């Protein structure tokens, strides 16, 4: 699983220099994505795909969170039914599902890093460039250190989880 790192750079020139350093560090253009407002020249930068521009990951997170809540509610209804009907095994299964959904929700909120494009709208509106780098989880610290060292003007914008199969 990869992590998507977000860096806000003051302009396209700085973003091009940062992208060149990331390429030199072994990231290819398939793992780099630049996003800016209309009218900013992103020549020489790999553009964000339409799915990346609409924050597909944020939508997937909301869908998963809502599905988790729905499963919990159904399990709660099943638990109430099982207790009223005196079905001990069904009550145990419903309780186990409820514990699993609470655990999944806790892990989702506490353990998964999440950053959404909405957090960068104001910077983008001012003409800044958002550079996204998809890196293996074990290289996150290395790439962040590289950006701090070589591009102090880059504002780190956080990270999010990334599932390669989703193609976002």
Order of secondary-structure elements: EHEHHHHEHE
Distance between the termini: 13 Å
Name the CATH homologous superfamily of the largest domain: FAD-linked oxidase, cap domain/gating helix
Structural class: alpha+beta
Q: Could you name the ranges where pLDDT drops below 50 across 5 or more consecutive residues?
A: none
In DSSP terms, counting alpha (H) and pi (I) runs of 4 or more, how many helices? 6
Keywords:
168 residues; alpha+beta; 6 helices; Vanillyl-alcohol Oxidase, Chain A, domain 3
Describe this structure in words.
With 168 residues, the protein is α+β, with helices and mostly antiparallel strands. It has two domains: 2-54 and 120-166, FAD-linked oxidase, cap domain/gating helix (Vanillyl-alcohol Oxidase, Chain A, domain 3), CATH 3.40.462.40; 57-110. 51% of the residues lie in helices and 17% in strands. The protein is built from six helices and four strands. It has a four-stranded antiparallel β-sheet, covered by helices on one side.
Task: Give the SSE map.
Blueprint (H helix, E strand, L loop, with lengths): L1 E8 L2 H13 L7 E4 L14 H4 L2 H30 L2 H23 L10 H5 L3 E8 L3 H11 L4 E8 L6
Antiparallel strand pairs: 1-3, 1-4, 2-3
Helix pairs in contact: 3-4
Task: Give me a quick take on this structure.
The chain is 51% helix and 17% strand. With 168 residues, it is α+β, with helices and mostly antiparallel strands.
